[in-house]
Write a structure and sequence with these properties.
By secondary structure, the chain is an alpha/beta fold. Helix content is 41%, strand content 22%. Helix 1 links the parallel strand 1 and strand 2. It is globular.
Length: 111
């Protein structure tokens, strides 16, 4: 790993843009990719930060230069997305709440 942590954001709505701004203001952090199932949302945020836009998580995870994934999707989807990112070897930051059911949280903790 380099001295700079390379971030990707999944979910390009209001919270995703808040995470993007925070990442770009952190020393040692670089936003490199964003993804959203709505292509125009992904492209809009990507254009704001001059990064690559994706329309699905797996495409974004295929980027080798990605260290951390911020999950900014609706709460009921956090388990699926966070577990996929963690299984790919990435660190994960999950927007609150972590999930909406205890079994989903338990799976996230196991992974």
């Amino acid at each position: 790993m380099t001295d700079t942590l390379r971030f990707g954001i999944l979910g390009c709505g209001v919270i995703g843009s808040t995470h993007a701004e925070a990442i770009t203001n952190l020393p040692g952090a670089q936003l490199v990719a964003v993804a959203d199932i709505t292509p125009i949302n992904a492209q809009k945020l990507a254009d704001m930060y001059n990064v690559t836009a994706y329309t699905n998580l797996q495409e974004m995870l295929d980027r080798k230069e990605l260290d951390v994934v911020n999950i900014c999707t609706p709460s009921g989807n956090h388990r699926e997305h966070a577990c996929a990112a963690m299984r790919s070897g990435r660190h994960v930051i999950v927007e609150k709440p972590m999930e909406i059911t205890l079994p989903a949280i338990d799976e996230m903790l196991r992974v």
